[in-house]
Design goal:
The complex is a heterotrimer of chains A (642), B (426) and C (414). Chain A is an alpha+beta fold. In chain A, 63% of the residues lie in helices and 8% in strands. Chain A folds into four domains: 116 residues, no CATH class; 84 residues, no CATH class; 104 residues, no CATH class; 297 residues, ABC transporter involved in vitamin B12 uptake, BtuC, CATH 1.10.3470. Chain A is built from 27 helices and twelve strands. In chain A, strands 4-3-2-1-5 form a five-stranded antiparallel beta sheet. In chain A, strands 6-10-7 form a three-stranded antiparallel beta sheet. Chain A is extended. Chain B is α/β, with parallel strands linked by helices and 426 residues long. Classes of the chains: A alpha+beta (642), B alpha/beta (426), C mainly alpha (414). At the A-C interface, helix 14, helix 20, helix 25 and helix 27 of A face helix 5, helix 6, helix 7, helix 12 and helix 14 of C.
């Protein structure tokens, strides 16, 4: 400790030139700040470091940003933490990059710059990184500029352009330079040119630059304001008057609360201005009492409507650009309005993608049901639990097969097998006996559903389980800055389409499909033609359940795997099938499409309340079924009677 | 008909096992946590934690010369059942104290019963405040012990300029977001820079909402997300963030309902760098914490089991209650309540928790960054903050105060200087 | 079977009359027994509350039986009416209790409150929990008990009337109708879940066991009173429904169940009969809910979630469809058993290698129970009565109905 104090004293007493000579010394003058930096307080440290011009500064800043800097309690000095072995850490010198010492883990305290500080450090590093040989470092530097554009960055960025070899990074540098010039350029002409170049760009930072150029301040006054005026502000009379009051330009309107406060403040014993308090239990009586106080001068008088109108008439409210140059704001306005149309169009496209994605999820969840319920007419309340089984199968496979791609390849067929086996078992043991009593199937399968849910809880615990998608499914497909969709959703969409094709093929083109249709329409007749209805029912049910299992894996990949995940989808799935039209795979597709698009549209109107969107969607479905009781794609003829 | 009668008889007999027993020994501790249904996810752990604490206390010689006995019931995530079982615990099992509930609605269900029968309950979960009952001690965080410091951190340290308040649609997120909105406006954040969204429980379709949040930052502002998203829905939310390639550096998320226990169900590699605010993290370095973690993992027989904030709340609450009973020399509710005021007990994170006369704890607030191993790097720790039952940031409750010792009122209006209500009518 | 065909009614004295008498008699004995036991402090207040609530559920189940077992409409949304009844009475309970507290508090001040201030203070207390103090329009009648009591009947009744009229008019039947009713209750619960619904969102209405005006009456008395009221409601409801299903009306309802088309061709306006049964049962279910929730103490949107209505159907199925006492038995048995298993009353079974904790296994057991009853005892618990009464012979003759609701040849041969 004493040594540290001595070091500290020496640093402060010695000449500044000496202090600049050594990185460690600079750090020691700011030791506490280096150890636990704050976003607002870290600036002096970084300024000192940059001012020193030491070659080791960029390396140190990177290590600091990467949280590799430790402070050794024994000598109070900062090091880069090296390899750790048996609780002993190798310490690397911050200037020479050589291992110089070791220290026990417990003696070291890590310097942990938080996200805000790391951004500040990143900004400081920009000038060093712009010409860094490592392309990734250059990209980081550009990202840092994009996040916090600053006038100082123009020169280093322009300087680094000439030496840039990577075409993509060069393009990005030029783009950013353009944005920086638009905001901070030296001449009006340079800025206007830069702004015009931005007019087609829908990237967030370009729009941000335009929005910031167009920032306004609102002012109130009796005369036309000076400066670069954007235009008058439209306010409702109430809002406008409230602003006048805020600015001290008009007396406040007397509210019931103000009346009450004035009465209480001026009460003498049991009465106020000669009126007993006990009688003041209506607004009218209180106003009368207040009026007396006002005439006595003990309260400010009521503000009449005429006074309000008069005050509003003589004042005007204007928005004034903070940017003083009208040429720049005009150019920015023109560019922004061109961009805005594009943005709106792209946002609609993005919403449409979301809607299609949601529809494919609903379709995938409901497609198994389209077979068991739609084709066979069995109300399987445990359908959701087959989805859950599939998801848990995926989870279990991942426990044994660590490679995510391989485990997915194994999990998909396995989930089909597991869920199909469960479905067949259920069909054989329970549903077979209840084919003529569909409403009772509902009860029996509901029993199975709650039992399976609880079993899943008992086996896997109540906590959600992770089901991780392989690396090639993470990330998103980006059409442009606004339109994008994650790969996992595309995969679900593809999977949904594949199942649609598969089912159509099986039902319409195979012997099994023919037999299924025959058995569904008339089991007795089918049996007499040599088809075994029992076998067909079993296979059909297995197929429907198996597909639910695969859907479970897909749903688990993008959302959560819990024992209740199936229950979340069951009601939706039934509605999808019913809205679409029972007995027809196309119907289910139509139902899922309708529900998905509808839900996203309603959400679009009120983005802050997803729950309301769901409520209205269900109300719509209820009404829809009133008018098309047999769904969108209604079967006609004899098949409809089944 | 005979069946009904016999059934009733059997049930009557079954429901009354405890009447004949000695009222004094053993001392009974009621555990009112859901072991089935949706809330079992979180609450089962707390039941186990209580069983461990009771076992430890018995190993240390019990309390007042008696053994402690835990009476466990299962309200099955069914809110009216909390009231029903609360009554059963107090009148039939005659427990001396109840540890239980998770979510405000379950607490508000059992509250009138506690007040009617003068029971005593410890509620261990962070909640929205706006309540102070004579018969409840709140050992979880009030908004000023979790939400406000987290927002301060966003403003001060991360320089966040636009806020997205995302929550599950129920009372805790609603009230917390109301408080935060009003607080943020006090801090000079414009109303249009605050985006609020509510989603149903278990929501999984996050793509549009995440896009909306990203769009917030299109004018170059730093955006931060304050998440009061509950339970499973978080999985989909973080997965979507990762899918849309949003890192914690771009848009930091601070969550109030994501702790170690929840993270064990996530693939945490996608969450690294996002934040959570609690009063306790398992990664806190203190001898008490190491001991507690070791005892817990041994009790549950699983080296990988994590500890979390509500467990610490029960740990503090239980030990304070034990000390208060010893101080009072009785388990009588009124005596214990008075002994609870000013009760001190070491936090697992270091420092000391103090029980205030408003029945809320003074605890430090910790902010942690999620690590790849599902634990948290503690990056900020405040001095102990006394829990505030009535928030100062909503005009209606700013004038309210709770003090059961001096004012003898949980909802005292300082403006009119009168006690608005003694029992909890909310 | 009790749903005897018309020809049987001529030959045999209607068993319904006897079964009704037995049911009411048992109910009376039960009420007296519980009253005496509770007077002697032998059963606890919470158990009386439980029994009272169970009777309300039994009344809802009896109503469900009329609409499903007799009319053949499997409504998976009847608990929506139950919940609405509860919400309607809950609004008054909360309002009146809050009003008393607010008045007591404001009376201590020197300046008496204006009506607007009173309203604001009440609104602040009731809606403070959802972050507002504005009183929504739907609370306009909450200050007056008679008006709110009318709403207990009117709101579920109107909803059922409108919904039923729409659905029956467009001939939505069978499974479609079931799913439609399920959508209705789902929409209602999602709506109520929203904070902006004006009914306090997820928190719902709480503290309902504190009856305004009876602050000093002990809960023991209040719960006993509600128990009596529930028993009375069950008795009256049972009588009403026994009357409805026994006369010509009952015959038509059963005919609608067995073959709707045929009844229509006979010149009956099927939709009106279905609408009548649907609406009447909805009203009675609403009343049952209004009696239930003051005993439960809290009502929230979870109570009208679709699963609650499925449970109601399951109770009826377990008790035995098509006989009113069956539904009541089913509801009472399952809800009491559920309660017993989850309140820790059943000892765990240690198998040595595994310990069966009933809180974990109860739902598995219940689920398996549903399956077994559906498979092996399609007549439900009520079928046991047939064994006692030696009425095992099938009471169906001639050609059986062709499809869903009707008895099949195989069943007739049992």
């Amino acid at each position: 400790m004493i040594r540290f104090l001595l070091a500290f004293l020496l640093t402060t007493l010695s000449a500044p030139a000496l202090a600049q000579a050594d990185l460690q010394t600079i750090l020691q003058t700011h030791a506490d700040e280096v150890e636990s930096p704050g976003r607002r307080t870290v600036a002096p440290v970084i300024e000192d470091l940059l001012a020193s011009g030491l070659p080791s500064v960029p390396m140190f800043l990177e290590a600091w940003q990467g949280r590799d800097i430790v402070r050794n309690a024994e000598d109070g000095l900062f090091y880069i933490a090296g390899a750790e072995k048996d609780d002993t850490v190798t310490l690397i010198d911050i200037a020479s990059k050589e291992p110089v010492a070791t220290a026990p883990d417990a003696a070291l305290s890590e310097a942990r710059p938080n996200g805000g500080v790391r951004r500040v450090i990143g900004a400081a590093l920009v000038q060093f990184r712009l010409s860094d040989p490592d392309p990734q470092a250059r990209r980081d530097a550009l990202a840092s500029i994009a996040r916090r554009p600053d006038a100082d960055q123009i020169e280093p960025l322009r300087g680094s352009l000439d030496t840039e070899e990577n075409a993509r990074i060069r393009a990005e540098k030029e783009r950013l330079l353009n944005i920086l010039v638009a905001r901070f350029g030296a001449t009006t002409q340079a800025r206007v040119d830069a702004i015009e170049a931005l007019s087609g760009s829908i990237t967030p930072d370009a729009r941000a630059a335009l929005a910031q150029i167009l920032e306004t301040e609102e002012g109130v006054g009796t005369e036309a304001p000076g400066g670069n005026v954007a235009g008058p502000v439209t306010l409702s009379p109430d809002e406008a008057y409230a602003r006048l009051v805020d600015e001290g330009l008009a007396p406040p309107i007397v509210t019931p609360a103000a009346i009450r406060d004035a009465i209480l403040a001026n009460a003498e014993g049991d009465s106020v201005a000669g009126i007993p308090l006990a009688t003041l239990n209506t607004d009218a009586a209180r106003r009368a009492a207040y009026d007396r106080l006002a005439t006595d001068g003990r309260a400010s008088p009521f503000v009449t409507q005429a006074q309000v109108d008069a005050a509003l008439a003589i004042h005007r409210f204007d928005a004034i650009y903070t940017e003083a140059d009208p040429a720049v704001t005009e150019a920015a306005l023109a560019s922004l309005s061109a961009v805005e149309r594009q943005v709106a169009l792209n946002q609609t496209a993005d919403l449409a993608l979301d809607a299609i994605s949601l529809a494919s999820i609903y379709f995938l969840a409901a497609i198994g049901l389209a077979i068991t319920f739609g084709v066979m007419g069995v109300i399987n309340m445990a359908h959701g639990e087959f989805i859950m089984m599939g998801a848990y199968t995926g989870y279990v496979v991942q426990q044994f097969v660590p490679d995510y791609t391989l485990s997915l390849v194994i999990a998909l067929p396995l989930a089909f097998v597991v869920a199909a086996a469960a479905g067949i078992a259920m069909e054989r043991l329970v549903i077979r006996h209840l084919y003529h009593r569909p409403l009772e199937t509902l009860l029996a399968t509901f029993g199975i559903s709650i039992a399976l849910q609880q079993l899943a809880k008992n086996i896997f615990g109540t906590q959600a389980r992770p089901l991780t998608s392989p690396g090639w499914l993470s990330g998103q497909w980006v059409a442009n800055e606004l339109v994008s969709i994650s790969y996992i959703r595309i995969a679900i969409f593809v999977l949904a389409l594949a199942f649609l094709e598969l089912l159509l093929f099986i039902l319409n083109r195979t012997r099994l499909g023919l037999e299924v249709r025959a058995v569904t329409q008339n089991p007795g007749m089918a049996a007499s033609m040599g088809i075994d209805p029992d076998r067909i029912n079993m296979l059909t049910f297995g197929l429907g359940s198996g597909i639910a299992g695969i859907a479970g894996v897909a749903i688990g990949l993008y959302a959560q795997v819990t024992s209740e995940m199936g229950a979340n989808y069951i009601v939706q799935s039934f509605m999808t099938v019913v809205v679409g039209g029972v007995g027809n795979v196309w119907g289910t597709l139509a139902g899922a499409g309708l529900i998905g698009v509808l839900q996203k549209t309603i959400e679009g109107f009120n983005p802050s309340n997803t729950l309301a969107a769901q409520t209205y969607m269900i109300l719509f479905i209820i009404l829809f079924i009133q008018f098309r009781p047999r769904g969108i794609v209604a079967l006609r003829g004899r098949a409809a009677e089944g | 008909m005979i069946r009904t009668a016999t059934l009733t008889a059997i049930l009557c007999a079954g429901a009354l096992p405890a009447v004949a027993q000695d009222a004094d020994c053993p001392i009974k501790v009621g555990v009112l946590h859901s072991l089935s249904g949706t809330m079992a996810i979180s609450e089962t752990t707390l039941k186990d934690a209580m069983l461990m604490l009771v076992e430890q206390q018995n190993a240390d010689g019990g309390l007042l010369g008696c053994d402690l006995e835990a009476v466990v019931v299962d309200p099955a995530s069914d809110w009216p059942r909390f009231a029903e079982l609360g009554r059963q615990l107090l009148t039939e099992d005659e427990v001396d104290v109840i540890f239980g509930s998770w979510t405000s609605v379950s607490r508000k269900s059992v509250l009138p019963v506690l007040e009617e029968l003068n029971g005593l309950m410890f509620y261990p979960v962070q909640y929205e405040g706006e309540e102070s009952s004579k018969n409840v001690f709140y050992t979880g965080a009030a908004p000023n012990q979790q939400a406000i410091p987290a927002v301060d951190y966003f403003l001060e340290e991360l320089g966040v300029e636009k806020f997205a308040l995302l929550g599950t649609d129920y009372v805790y997120p609603r009230t917390t977001n109301n408080i935060l909105e009003s607080y943020l406006m006090d801090q000079g954040i414009a109303e249009e820079d605050i985006f609020v969204n509510y989603t149903p429980f278990g929501h999984s379709d996050w793509s549009t909402i995440v896009s909306d949040v990203i769009e917030l930052g299109s004018d170059g502002s730093q955006v931060g997300v304050i998440s009061t998203i509950n339970g499973d829905a978080n999985v989909g939310f973080y997965k979507e963030l990762a899918a849309q390639e949003v890192s914690a550096d771009d848009i930091p998320v601070v969550a109030f309902s994501v702790g170690e226990e929840e993270l064990s169900g996530f693939d945490t590699s996608e969450l690294v760098g996002h934040l959570a605010a609690w009063n306790y993290f398992q990664s806190a370095e203190s001898p008490e914490n190491e001991e507690f973690i070791a005892a817990w993992q041994e009790f549950i027989g699983d080296e990988a089991r994590v500890t979390n904030d509500p467990m610490e709340a029960h740990y503090i609450g239980f030990n304070m209650w034990v000390n208060a009973v010893e101080e009072a020399g009785t388990t009588d509710v009124d005596a214990v309540r008075e002994a609870m005021w000013g009760q001190e007990y070491p936090n697992l994170t270091g420092g000391t928790a103090v029980m205030g006369t408003n029945h809320h704890l003074a605890k430090p607030v910790l902010i942690g960054e999620i690590r790849e191993d599902g634990q948290f790097d503690i990056i900020s720790e405040t001095d102990p903050v006394p829990g505030d039952a009535w928030t100062d940031y909503l005009p209606d409750s700013a004038v309210l105060e709770s003090d059961w010792s001096e004012l003898e009122c949980g909802m005292y209006n300082t403006e009119t200087e009168s006690c608005v209500q003694l029992t909890s009518n909310y | 079977m009790t749903d005897a065909t018309l020809s049987y009614r001529a030959q045999r004295p209607p068993i319904k009359r006897t079964s009704t008498m037995i049911f009411l008699g048992t109910l009376t004995v039960f009420v007296v027994l519980v009253t005496v036991l509770s007077g002697a402090d032998l059963i606890s207040t919470s158990f009386v509350k439980l029994l009272g609530k169970t009777l309300c559920l039994a009344l809802a189940a009896v109503a469900m039986d009329v609409v499903w077992g007799y009319t053949g409409i499997l409504s998976l949304g009847h608990m929506a009416f139950f919940g609405l009844g509860g919400y309607m009475i809950g609004m008054w309970l909360m309002w009146a209790r809050t009003e008393a507290i607010v008045q007591a508090n404001l009376a201590t001040q020197s300046l008496p409150p204006t009506p607007a201030e009173l309203r604001d203070a009440i609104g602040g207390q009731i809606f403070g929990v959802v972050g507002t103090s504005d009183i929504p329009l739907i609370w306009s009648f909450a200050h007056a008990l008679p008006l709110q009591l009318i709403l207990v009947v009117a709101v579920p009744g109107l909803l059922a009337l409108v919904f039923g009229w729409l659905a029956f008019r467009s001939r939505v039947t069978g499974v479609y109708l079931s799913i439609l009713t399920q959508a209705m209750t789902l929409a209602l619960s999602l709506y109520l879940f929203q904070n902006d619904s004006g009914l306090r969102g997820n928190n719902g209405l709480s503290g309902l066991q504190n009856i305004p005006g009876f602050e000093n009456t002990s809960q023991a008395w209040i719960s006993l009173t509600f128990f009596w009221a529930s028993a009375l409601a069950l008795g009256l409801g049972y009588l009403l429904f026994a009357w409805v299903v026994s006369g010509r009306m009952g015959s038509v309802l059963r005919a609608v169940r067995d073959d709707e088309a045929r009844v229509r061709f006979l010149g009956y306006h099927v939709e009106s009969f279905k609408l009548f049964a649907f609406t009447l049962t909805a009203i009675v279910t609403g009343i049952a809910g209004a009696l239930y929730y003051p005993q439960a103490g809290i009502i929230n949107p979870g109570e009208v979630a679709p699963i609650a209505s499925i449970y109601l159907a399951v109770w009826v199925a377990i008790g035995g469809r098509g006989r009113l006492y069956g539904a009541a038995i089913g509801a009472i048995a399952v809800s009491l058993l559920s309660n017993w298993f989850t309140s820790g009353g059943v000892p765990d079974i240690d198998l040595g290698f595994y310990e069966i904790r009933w809180t974990e296994w109860w739902l598995v057991l219940l689920g398996a129970g549903f399956v077994c009853v559906t498979l092996f005892a399609p007549k439900g618990l009520g079928g046991l009565v047939d064994l006692i009464a030696r009425r095992t012979d099938p009471d169906r003759q001639g050609a059986y109905g062709p499809d869903t609701g009707a008895k099949r040849t195989s069943e007739g041969a049992e």
